[in-house]
Specification:
This protein is α+β, with helices and mostly antiparallel strands. It has helices at residues 78-94, 161-167, 170-174; strands at 28-29, 50-52, 59-64, 100-109, 118-129, 132-141, 148-158. Strands 1-2-3-5-6-7-4 form a seven-stranded antiparallel sheet, covered by helices on one side. Bound molecules: Palmitoyl-CoA (PKZ). Palmitoyl-CoA (PKZ) binds at residues 6, 32, 38, 86-87, 90-91, 94, 99, 101-104, 131-132, 155, 157, 159, 161, 164, 170, 173-174.
Length: 184
């Protein structure tokens, strides 16, 4: 794929190890926030992605493209597909249970995606260097080994809790994550 230098890990950036005590391989991942547009079950107009991790560092999910996701008639909107990429990538770095935000997201659209398609999504981290995490994702049509329709590469930046407290609603998140520790 056409990945830029900005989303390519520098030499020496190692992929993360599974977090001790983190989700067991094969276990489903709940939503990180019930109102999240990507994964929140209380977000009726969202993507409602449900995901699992096969190994503690990779995330897989299925996204059924519906009529509400159209751009051209009968075809998925590219921005919606980018959102799905952003979400599974965000889920994969959230496996580390440290707060990151998307800094840069690059997306390649390789095949049109029809309404009714089940996209099989997968995301993984290629390296962490300081506050920067380098991640990739892909969406395959119809099966985990189906043809690739969309690929993405991203740079996520680790932030402190003050990012959410200052700019968002940290209390709303913490209300659903009583076990979350700021400095575990
Ligand atoms: C209570 C809640 C708990 C936690 C809850 C977690 C929930 C788990 C979520 C999982 C699922 C979510 C999935 C969706 C994830 C989103 O959608 S996040 C929302 C979208 N993103 C945003 O809103 C981010 C907006 N941007 C910002 O806030 C700030 O620009 C940033 C990204 C924090 C960076 O600002 P900064 O902290 O001042 O850092 P800065 O010094 O500018 O940059 C640091 C380094 O990154 C580089 N960099 C920064 N931006 C870029 C860029 N765009 N391109 C290239 N390089 C960049 C800088 O060049 C710098 O590099 P070095 O000089 O160190 O080599």
């Amino acid at each position: 794929m056409t990945r830029s230098a900005l989303t390519t890990p520098p030499p020496g950036a190692a992929p993360p190890e599974p977090l001790p005590g983190g989700p067991a391989p094969g276990s489903p991942l709940g939503p990180h926030y019930s109102h999240c547009f990507g994964c929140g079950p209380k977000q009726p107009t969202g993507l409602n992605l449900t995901a699992s991790t096969p190994d503690g560092v990779t995330v897989t999910a299925e996204f059924v493209v519906g009529g509400v996701h159209q751009g051209a008639p009968g075809l998925a909107h590219g921005g919606v597909l980018a959102t799905a990429m952003d979400e599974v990538i965000g889920m994969s770095i959230w496996l580390l249970r440290r707060p990151y935000v998307t800094g840069r997201l690059e997306t390649d659209y390789l095949r049109p995606v029809s309404v009714g398609t089940t996209l099989h999504l997968r995301a993984w981290c290629t390296g962490v260097s300081g506050r920067k995490a380098y991640l990739e994702a892909e969406g395959r049509i119809g099966a985990p080994d189906g043809p690739v329709a969309v690929r993405a590469a991203a740079l996520f930046i680790e932030v402190g809790m003050e990012h959410f407290a200052e700019h968002g609603d940290a209390d709303a998140f913490l209300a659903e994550h009583h076990d979350y520790e700021v400095n575990p």
